[in-house]
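Complex record, two chains
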Amino acid sequence: MTTTSELETGPQGRIDRQALADVVPLAIPAIPFGFVVGLAATESAMPQWIAWLTAPLVFAGAAQLAMITLAGTATLWAVITAVLVINTRHLMYSAALAPTFRSQPRWMRWFGPFFMVDQVFALASLQTHRSPAEFRRYFLTTALAFYAVWNAVVPLGMLVGPIVPDSWRLDYAPPIMFAGLTLFAIKRVPAAVAAIVGGFVSLATVDLQDRLGIVVGALAGVGAGAVAEWIIDRRSAPPADPAADPSSDEAVT
Amino acid sequence: MSTSAALAALFCGAIGTYFARSSLILLLAGRSLPASVERALQNVGPAVLAALTINLAVGSSGLGGVEFAEVAALVVAGGVAAWWKNLTWTFVAGMATLWICSAIT
């Protein structure tokens, strides 16, 4: 990603070029993911045109893949619950960009968040120092670029899916993608604890009806992550006893 | 899944996703979330993605139906993802492991 300082006062065309240059390295990895979502749509119990509509209407890779894959193996409410739980992390993005969006016009506050996929958030969060007009231009350019790429790649996967022989085991592509996304999401120790506990509890509860093990595992993981946060905070907090060595516990963080 | 159930899933998923992304931008005027809530939200992603991985990997066949090649594919995919932070290579390595191990066993 190139630096942004040269663009602070540039014209809109320069902001567009900067935004598109920033999009490329993040859009390339999204291409195979969108392709897998398209392939999964061809194997889904959902009618294919509805599975396709998840790309323009939901526009969220992990949630789409979960919805498309779980359809037919779980009840409706279980599918919806899984999708909503997956997207809870977007609340974090919303909270992080709320101060920047406060200076945007009303239409942008309602329209912009629709496009806030992980990559758009990651790029936009680096541009909060810009003027409201420049930020809006940058945000919308990256957002529309990702939207265009995604809506081109998912149908491509749907076209290719029926040609691929069953022996290629593309039915197993979703868990492989989710395994990768899990590892990407772990950036801190409590997150690792949340993932390990979430995975094991989901394994222990795999026989529950309606894929309930997903939600049970997720809740157990979030709880374990919170406990891990609490333990780490306690161990890294300054000791209450003033005679104690204040640096003795710093290594644990 | 019937067409009406699939449409219901689609629209609930679309509306839920939109409000997860927009709600705090629309509601959080001048305030911020408590730090503990923000940190708990950071753990939602890893927890739910890990639970999904395992649930989808084991599938409806149950634990007894899991093949060695499938476990190997997940382990290799996890390793590649952790090391290279690249989803394309994760996918390629995971699928290649699945094919090779399936052919051997």
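Note: Residues 1-32 of chain B form one domain.
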